[in-house]
Amino acid sequence: MSPATSPATVLRDLDRVVAAAEPQQRLGLALALNARVATLTAELAAQPPPAPTTDSEPAAKEHWLSADEALAVMGGKVNRKFLYRATRGMKFRKDLSRKNVLWEEAGLRRWIASRRS
């Protein structure tokens, strides 16, 4: 669309035409505008919805921590035995085997914050 036919220019021209129309012409003008609005609406409805933009905040990707990394997140103030015992059954803990356990970082941080308050 060229600058001469920008939407703002078209709407200003339309306002002038409506203001200049005589009362008996306004019904025909309203019907013609309504038909164009219906056509535009039908064209928009027929188009597929726009793809979601990637500018919005992406879903947080899970980051799993080993025991050593989890201990570092806890500030190194607790021992490994406490970490295993205190988080048993928590949703942010994933037991791969008896000796191989992972902790989801965001969940572990939320748990730590809830214990501090």
- Output the number of helix runs: 5
- Record the strand order, biggest sheet: 1-3-2
Average per-residue pLDDT, rounded, comes to 85
Oligomer: single chain
End-to-end Cα distance: 59 Å
Secondary structure tally: strands: 3
The coarse silhouette is: rod-shaped
Beta content = 5-15%
Largest sheet, in brief, is: 3 strands, antiparallel
Q: Uncertain spans, ≥5 residues at pLDDT below 50? A: none
Rounded Rg: 32 Å
Q: Give the ordered list of helices and strands.
A: HHEHHEEH
Number of domains: 2
Structural class: mainly alpha
Question: Can you describe what's shown?
Answer:
- With 117 residues, the protein is mainly alpha-helical.
- The chain has 2 domains: 3-46; 64-116.
- It contains 5 helices and 3 strands, in the order ααβααββα.
- A hairpin with a 5-residue loop joins strand 2 and strand 3 (101-104).
- The longest helix has 24 residues, at 23-46.
Give a short summary of the structure:
The chain has helices at residues 7-20, 23-46, 67-73, 80-86, 105-116; strands at residues 64-65, 93-95, 101-104.
Question: Which features would summarize this protein structure in a list?
Answer:
rod-shaped; 8% strand; 5 helices; three-stranded antiparallel beta sheet; 117 residues; mainly alpha
